[in-house]
């Protein structure tokens, strides 16, 4: 086997491309810091802007400027701790990476599995202690009240100073999406720009995106539905590495790879969690 013909970088890029095509939740994360981390244990400080104060007088008398304000921003540290690995055999890499070979199918499967793992991590941010929930206990969602519940979440974000024209993302499970469809007859499901963003529908300025990787509680009876901006969660995938070798004790070739990544809720005020159940 001529290992020098194995295009490891090409395969790694193909896997990441399939990951990006299949992923739902990681699409709407802050990824601007991705290039600042390179390996496991690397950290990056994510800074958020503070609030600038404005002093106002209404008596028409000119006043002196006060001492300059020290604007207290926010900061959060994202450390790369998650590693997903795959390791499989093929009879001959030269043949399998050619036209009609199975390698294209395997890299597609690896990309989809990787997207699932990374989406699950982002979904788990709904369980973060800093995440604000609809209530201490789950609320029952029905076709009659589902839009009211979503509106409550939108209102909470607006009250937290999220701009009213900010695009929001609602990550829903299939069972919640079916309730939304039953209630909202004007649901926009045929918008080309929306479909490019991976949304299945729009509700006002909210992109509704469906995933099987939504976090749950109470043995799966409760969905933890995230309503958020695309800055609320930071995600970084600094490395996807592939290599090939002869498989030990087998007359076959081995392809193995790993992806390094992590996520963190960095702007809790820009996310609201609807903890919803569907039965009494």
Order of helices and strands: HEEEHHEEHEHHEEEEEEE
What Rg do the Cα atoms give? 23 Å
Shape: globular
Percent in helix = 10-25%
Mean pLDDT: 86
Distance between the termini: 61 Å
User: What is the number of E strands?
Assistant: 13
Number of helices: 6
Low-confidence stretches: none
Largest sheet: 8 strands, mixed
Task: State the secondary-structure class.
Answer: alpha+beta
Percent in strands = 25-35%
Walk me through what this model shows.
α1 packs across α3 (103-123). The chain is globular, with a radius of gyration of 23 Å. Strands 4, 5, 6, 7, 8, 9, 10 and 13 form an eight-stranded mixed beta sheet that branches. Strands 3-12-11 form a three-stranded antiparallel beta sheet, with helices on one face. The chain has a two-stranded antiparallel sheet with strand order 1-2. It is of the alpha+beta class and 280 residues long. Helix content is 25%, strand content 29%. The model has no long low-confidence stretch (mean pLDDT 86). It is built from six helices and 13 strands. It has helices spanning 8-22, 93-96, 103-123, 146-159, 174-183, 192-196, and strands at residues 43-48, 74-79, 82-90, 132-133, 139-140, 168-172, 201-203, 206-210, 216-217, 222-228, 233-246, 253-265, 271-277.
Task: Summarize the helices and strands and which ones pair or pack.
Blueprint: H1 8-22, E1 43-48, E2 74-79, E3 82-90, H2 93-96, H3 103-123, E4 132-133, E5 139-140, H4 146-159, E6 168-172, H5 174-183, H6 192-196, E7 201-203, E8 206-210, E9 216-217, E10 222-228, E11 233-246, E12 253-265, E13 271-277
Parallel strand pairs: 4-13, 5-13, 6-8
Antiparallel strand pairs: 1-2, 3-12, 6-10, 7-8, 9-10, 10-13, 11-12
């Amino acid at each position: 086997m001529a290992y020098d013909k194995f295009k490891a970088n090409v395969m790694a890029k193909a896997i990441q491309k399939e990951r990006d095509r299949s992923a739902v939740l990681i699409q709407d994360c802050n990824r601007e810091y991705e290039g600042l981390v390179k390996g496991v244990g690397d950290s990056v400080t994510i800074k958020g802007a503070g609030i600038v104060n404005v002093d106002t007088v209404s008596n028409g008398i000119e006043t002196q400027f006060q001492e300059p304000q020290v604007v207290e921003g926010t900061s959060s540290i994202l450390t790369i701790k998650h590693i997903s690995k795959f390791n499989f055999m093929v009879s001959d890499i030269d043949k399998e990476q050619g036209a009609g070979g199975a390698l294209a199918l395997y890299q597609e499967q690896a990309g989809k599995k990787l997207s699932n793992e990374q989406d699950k991590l982002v979904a788990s941010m709904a369980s973060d202690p800093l995440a604000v929930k609809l209530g201490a206990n789950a609320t029952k969602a029905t076709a009659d009240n589902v839009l009211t519940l979503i509106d409550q979440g939108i209102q909470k974000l607006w009250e937290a100073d999220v701009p009213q024209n900010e695009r929001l993302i609602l990550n829903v499970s299939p069972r919640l999406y079916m309730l939304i469809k039953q209630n909202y007859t004007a649901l926009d499901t045929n918008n080309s720009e929306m479909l490019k963003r991976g949304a299945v529908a729009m509700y006002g300025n909210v992109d509704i995106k469906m995933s099987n990787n939504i976090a749950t509680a109470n043995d799966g009876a409760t969905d933890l539905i995230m309503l958020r901006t695309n800055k609320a969660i930071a995600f970084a995938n600094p490395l996807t590495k592939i290599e090939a070798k002869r498989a030990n004790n087998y007359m076959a070739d081995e392809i193995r790879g790993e992806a390094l990544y992590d996520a963190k809720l960095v702007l809790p005020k820009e996310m609201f969690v609807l903890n919803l159940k569907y039965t009494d």
